[in-house]
Amino acid sequence: MEKQEIRTFGRRHGKRLSMRKQWLMENVLPRIAPAGDAQILEIGFGAGEHVRALALRHPDKTIVGAEPFANGVAALLGAICDATTNEILPEYKNIRIFPDDVRDLLRDTDAKFEQIWVLHPDPWPKARHEKRRLLQTEFIKTLARHLAPNGEIIIGTDHWEYFDWICGRAAETNLAFETPEIDIIKTRYQAKNMAETVAPKYIVIKNK
Ligand SMILES: C[S@@+](CC[C@H](N)C(=O)[O-])C[C@H]1O[C@@H](n2cnc3c(N)ncnc32)[C@H](O)[C@@H]1O
Fold first, then answer.
1. Relative to the CA of 192, which ligand 1 atom is closest?
2. CB 9 less than 6 A from any atom of ligand 1
3. What atom in ligand 1 is closest to the CA of residue 156?
4. Which of 7, 69, 124 to mutate to test the pocket of ligand 1 (most atoms within 8 A of CB)?
5. Per CATH, which fold does 37-68+94-206 belong to?
6. In Å, what is the CA distance from 153 to each residue of 16, 20, 77?
7. Is-catalytic flag, 122?
8. Which residues lie across from 135 on neighbouring strands?
9. Pick from 113, 96, 179, 103: which is nearest to 134 by CA?
10. Which residues of 95-127 are buried (b: 16+ CB within 10 A; e: fewer)?
11. Ligand 1 in contact with 68 (CB < 6 A)?
12. How far is residue 57's CA from residue 41's CA, in Å, rounded to a whole number?
C-alpha cells in the first residue's frame, strides 16, 4: 500500500455554496479539468485572484490552478464565468482547475511548466505542525522535475520565519535559488493579513 501523505491543507469545505456556485462546480468544473497542456501552474490558489491575473497576463499560455478547498475553487469559477449566462468569459478560457491536492496532479503527469507559483503557502507555525509544511525538500525537488528548460518556481510568503525555513530547504537541494523583490497583485490571503504582517518575500528556484 502507498504511504499516506501528510495533509498540508486545512479545510476542504467552508460555508455552504450558493446555488450558482454549486451549479458551476457540477457543470463547469468538469469541463476545465487539466489536460496536460498547461505551461503555468499555481499551487494553492485560494480564491484564485492570481490565477486570473496570470490568465490575463499570458493569454497565449494555459494556466492550471490546484486547490483542495472547495469554496476557493467555487470562488474562482464564480469570477471566471459570466454572471448571467454562466459561460466562461473569453479572457479566462485559458484556465484549468485541479480541485485537489497538487501532489496527486503531479504524480500522474510528466508535464513541464515554465512557471510554478506558490503564494502564501500555509505556514503551519507550531513546531509540532512543521511536517505539514508543503515546501519540504523532497517536494521542492519534485517541483523542479516538473520545470521546463529555464523554468522557475516562484514562492511568496509574508511569514518570514517560513520564508527562512523554505530557503533552508531549498539550500538542501542542488537547485539554484535567489530571493528577488517581485511586484505582483495582492491575493486575498495577503490582503487579510496586511494589518499585522510585513511585505511578502519571494524565493525563485531554478534548475542549475
Ligand atoms: C494560506 S492559503 C493562500 C491562498 C492563496 N494563495 C492566497 O494567497 O490568497 C494556502 C492555500 O494552499 C492550499 N493548499 C495547501 N496544501 C495544498 C496542496 N497540497 N495542494 C494544493 N493546494 C494546497 C490551501 O487549501 C490554501 O487554500
1. 9
2. yes
3. 8
4. 69
5. Rossmann fold (3.40.50)
6. 34, 34, 25
7. yes
8. none
9. 103
10. bbbbbebbeebbeeeebebbbbbbbbbbbbeee
11. yes
12. 14
The per-residue pLDDT for range 138-171, each reduced to its tens digit, is 999 999 999 999 999 999 999 989 999 999 999 9
As a whole number, mean pLDDT of residues 167-187 equals 93
Per residue in 11-58, pLDDT tens? 999 999 999 999 999 999 999 999 999 999 999 999 999 999 999 999
DSSP state at residue 90: G
**Of 100, 122, 158, 164, which residue is the catalytic one?**
122
197: pLDDT strictly greater than 80: no
Q: List the alpha helices (DSSP H) in 58-153.
A: 70-80, 102-107, 137-145
How far apart are alpha carbons 114 and 77 in whole angstroms? Answer: 24
Which pLDDT band, with edges at 50, 70 and 90, does 3 fall under? low
Q: Which amino acid belongs to residue 33? A: A
Is 121 a pocket residue for ligand 1 (Cβ < 6 Å)? yes
67 lines ligand 1 (CB under 6 A): yes
User: What's the grid cell of residue 197?
Assistant: 504582517
Alpha carbon of 46 to ligand 1 centroid (Å): 6
Q: Using a 6 Å cutoff on CB, does residue 54 contact ligand 1?
A: no
- Residue 43 CA to ligand 1 centre (angstroms): 7
